[in-house]
Design brief:
alpha+beta; Heat Shock Protein 90; five-stranded mixed β-sheet; two-stranded antiparallel ribbon; 7 strands; about 20% strand
């Protein structure tokens, strides 16, 4: 019997963990079968193996987003701010970002730093989640063998960070809905990746909790540039 003191957040996290374990097992079996039948499978069977792999990756991403939605960034404004060297933080985030789509599409992530060291007060875990959503979107909608560039500049007491891809861009008719929860602007990526329509909603929520702002510029067939402003201050 479940302990009455267990919170809904803890239950969702536990369910998410169990689902991720199941997904990992399915992926492992699929990879074993893919290797075993590598030399004998026809094109249709290879397509099935690839579809299973992609579906597992999509499910893992959706579970992460649903857990993030429940992890109090929406209703609970409490953050855990800490002094952060923003240059180093972004450099490490970009260099350590790991995604199967990066390798499948051969996407290069490049961080353009500035000479000035910027020290800022943020919740590192929350901001890391925000940028993970942005990078995930950039990679999802990028063309193979392209680049995603992360830049940072400073305007007075504001750190401006941009994430630019060379992807398919966003149709004008969808742009008003991009930051909505479960947005109808959700689309498949260039490799058929699914989207729950939560990433930008969660990101906007996190950035605004830091008294920051987020917006984007996009051109179909050229790419999308997401901009984030974070105030430089010694406390939130």
């Amino acid at each position: 019997m479940m302990n009455d003191s267990v919170s809904g957040e803890e239950v969702l996290t536990q369910i998410g963990r169990e689902l991720q374990n199941k997904i990992a097992r399915i992926r492992s079996c699929n990879q074993t079968l893919t290797t075993f039948f590598e030399n004998t499978a026809d094109d249709d069977h290879k397509k099935y193996f690839s579809t299973i792999e992609q579906d597992c990756a999509d499910l893992k991403s959706i579970i992460h987003n649903l857990i993030d939605l429940d992890h109090c960034y929406e209703e609970n404004p409490d953050l855990k701010p800490a002094p952060t060297h923003l240059n180093r933080f972004l450099s490490e985030l970009v260099s350590s970002y790991d995604s199967e789509a990066i390798y499948k599409k051969r996407i290069k992530l490049h961080f353009e730093d500035i000479d000035e060291s910027i020290h800022i007060m943020i919740d590192p875990q929350a901001i890391r989640r925000a940028f993970s959503h942005i990078l995930s979107n950039a990679i999802k909608f990028s063309q193979p063998d392209s680049e995603v560039v992360i830049k940072m500049i400073r305007y007075a007491n504001v750190a401006n960070i941009s994430v630019a891809d060379q992807g398919i861009g966003i149709p004008k008719k969808l742009r008003p809905y991009l930051f909505s929860k479960f947005t109808k602007a959700a689309r498949r990526g260039t490799n058929g990746e699914e989207s729950a329509g939560l990433g930008l909603y969660l990101t906007k929520n996190i950035i605004e909790k830091h008294q920051g702002s987020i917006w984007l510029e996009s051109e179909e067939g050229i790419g999308t540039n997401v901009f984030i402003n974070l105030p430089i201050r010694d406390r939130i």
